[in-house]
Amino acid sequence: MLKLLPIVLIFLFFIPSIVRADIPNPDFLNAQCPNGEQLIECDTGFRLNPNASRLPNQCLFYENNPSYQSLSVQSQWGGTVDQDHGQRKYCYHPASSLEGLTYHGKRLLLLLAVTILLELPIYYRFGFKSKNNLLQVILANLISLPTFYLISLVSPIHSFVVLLALEIAVIFFEAMFLYNLNKVLGLKKVLLSAIVANAFSAIVGSFIVSIINSIIRGY
Fold this sequence. Notes:
219 residues, alpha+beta, two-stranded antiparallel sheet, 7 helices, elongated, disordered N terminus
C-alpha cells in the first residue's frame, strides 16, 4: 500500500488542475495593472498548431525578468502534453539594479537550497557519507549552480538543447571535482552518482520550485 502512495498523491495533485483547466478564470479576464504600468500578455508552455509545429514559450523572458511582475494565469488543456498551454499576464515596471539583484539573489538561494537538499541523500547512498564528503558536495553545488544560473540568464537562447548542454556540463564538473577529492570511490561510481543526483534534482527540484513559486504568487 505504501508503494502506491506517491502515485495516489500525484493523481490527487494533477487531476483537479486538469479538470479546472478549461474553465475560464474570471480573475485572469479582469486582471489589470496599476496605473502607469504596462500590461503584457503571453502564451505559456508548448503546443501544436494545425501544421504540427511547436510554438515556443513566449513567457520565458518575462518569468526571469524582475521588471515584469506576474499578474494572473489562465491554463488550458489541449489533450496532450504538447498541446497543454495557457496565457499569463504581466505588469511591466522597470526594476532598479538593486531590485534586480534582490530578485535573482532570492531565486538563486531557493534553487541552491532545493538542489542541495535533494542531492545530499543520493550522494550519501553512493558512498559520500563523511562530513567532509557532504561538505564537498555542497561546495561543488555552490560553484556549479550559480555558474549555470548566470550563463542561462545571459544566454540569448533559452532552448531545451542549451539547457541540456549546460546540465551535462554541470554533471561532468561535479563528477571531476568530487573525484579529485575522493579518488578512492572510483571515477565510474562518482560519475554515476553525479548523473543520478543531478537528474533527480533537475526533475524533482523544478517541480518543487514551481509549486513554491505558485504559492508565493497566489495561484
